[in-house]
Write a structure and sequence with these properties.
Largest sheet: none
Number of helices: 6
Radius of gyration: 38 Å
Structural class: mainly alpha
Strand content: under 5%
Helix content: 40-55%
Order of helices and strands: HHHHHH
Length: about 150
Amino acid sequence: MKTRTRIGGAGSPLPAARPRKDGGVPQCGKVTRPTQTPEIRSTLWRLHSFVLAALIALTGCRTPIGADLASPRQAYLNLHRNALNSSDCSGDAQVVLHRYNLETPFEKNPDATLKQLQAIACADDRRDVLYALSELNYLNAEGRRRNGGQ
């Protein structure tokens, strides 16, 4: 048979409950939060500020750009890619297409895009536009030759 002992009673390892100042009996289960003094509040404010500053600083240290290891041959081929040695245009031609917002139209309708680019080349004195026009014309002709002249 089990015997029950009161908390804080005779023979209990726990101390007896202290009476409250207002004369009432302490209630079990209620947790009262201690009041914070101004010193504690300022210390907590400084701690939160420090943690926030540290998180901001740490996220700023992470680089958003990554690099993949490539062999020298692969790096050379990527740098010198053009319509003559691959089935895609060079980076210079892509820059021109991007400058005039012609990337998507070139994929959908290359003939109309090349006409637009020729009109731009006649009005613009930059050499990269002429280079892109010639390379994209070659790429378009090669694509038609591969598809049987369509």
